[in-house]
Amino acid sequence: MKPVKARRNLTILSILGATLAVASPFVRAQATDSPHVVYGSDDRQDVSAVTNPLYKKLAQSSAGMIPASTLSTIPGSTRLKITAPTLQLDQNLCPGERFADQLTAAYCSGFLIGSDILVTAGHCIEDASDCARFRWVFDFQQDKLGTPASVDSSNVYSCASILNQELGANTDNDFAVIKLDRPVVGREPLQIRKTGKIELGANLIVIGNPSGIPTKIAGGAKVRSNDEAAFFKANLDTFAGNSGSAVLDATTGVVEGILVRGEDDYIDDAARGCSHVNICTNDGCRGEDVTRITGVTYTVPSPRPSASPTPSPSKVPVISDGELELRSNAMFEAIFTDKTAPVMKVGLFGKNLGYSSGRYKISGAALLGCRMILEKDDVVIASHSGSCKKPQKFMDIIRYYIQQTR
Questions:
Q1: Residue 384 near residue 321, CB atoms below 8 Å
Q2: Beta-strand (E) ranges in 272-359?
Q3: What is the pLDDT of residue 339?
Q4: Helix or strand or coil: residue 382?
Q5: Is there a domain that residue 2 lies in?
Q6: Tens-place pLDDT, residues 34-67
Q7: Is there a contact between 351 and 363 (Cβ–Cβ < 8 Å)?
Q8: Is 305 domain-assigned?
Q9: Using 50, 70 and 90 to split pLDDT, how confident is the model at 242?
Q10: pTM score, two decimals?
């Protein structure tokens, strides 16, 4: 798996010193210090092929992050059809590669830590737009898809809000915690490490969606490096699409971390005109990075009193600007990636990256440009992304909304 292992429909961009690589309509974001790979033998198994009862139970709490646009209703059925290319088509695989006929529907992976709380990688869910356009699908398993490939709608959940998200150049953290639209039925939250850290050499398993295909369980891995505060390295057989996967102690099943970065997944064979899985020795290549679960924090907001109305979208005027996003009934919570980000200070008083004036609060961050968030009474009114070199544009939008919402 490349340093960032999410599958994204993006063009090649530079972000925080890494490259996000894009290919086909179903793409993986991949950083240059490399996403995923096989170490030693390929230990990936479909859930149905696994005999360990603990591992099979743990897999029930894993979900794939699938674009809502690829799920469609089947007339007269409670199931939703999945439209996605096969791994063969998506990666132009050479003959004989494993799982070639399986669908690459998932962009990332995630896992339950509460009845309606799910953890994934921070680069998988960065903002409310990501929250809205993806669904979290449980039982995305090869033997349960049927023909045509589909999932039961009862196993499909939406992201209701982002409780915390961090993609930090300063801390190396990469995680997101989201609240689902309803409690997940029939599945238990995974147990997570609360303090301390895993031992060097400890045995591991990973559960997720390598290259976006149905859920796989992969063992035969161990902790290779344990010196970093925010993450450890392991020789996990993981790929883009595994971003957000639970990395667990192979004996206890306790979550030790979140798979976030790694080595290149596939190698182009120019002579054959196809690609094959990148194979490393167990101690070779860069290893796969796992964000420590002990660094993941979040707060569930208290319910707002019903007597406190929030702005209606119909009452918020729209600026003629394609990049502007209007939001209401949403709490803005984020940890910014760049503490030196240029932010808007005109006429405002600042503290860290948040700026306030009376009932209004403005926040900004630099990530693929600059992003401004405008809140009133803790409710997000608008957000705007644009060039960091044009702060006046942000200020014009801020002033406009303050005038219109007074």
A1: yes
A2: 274-277, 279-280, 288-292, 324-326, 349-351, 354-357
A3: 36
A4: strand
A5: no
A6: 344 677 788 899 999 999 999 999 999 999 999 9
A7: no
A8: no
A9: very high
A10: 0.68
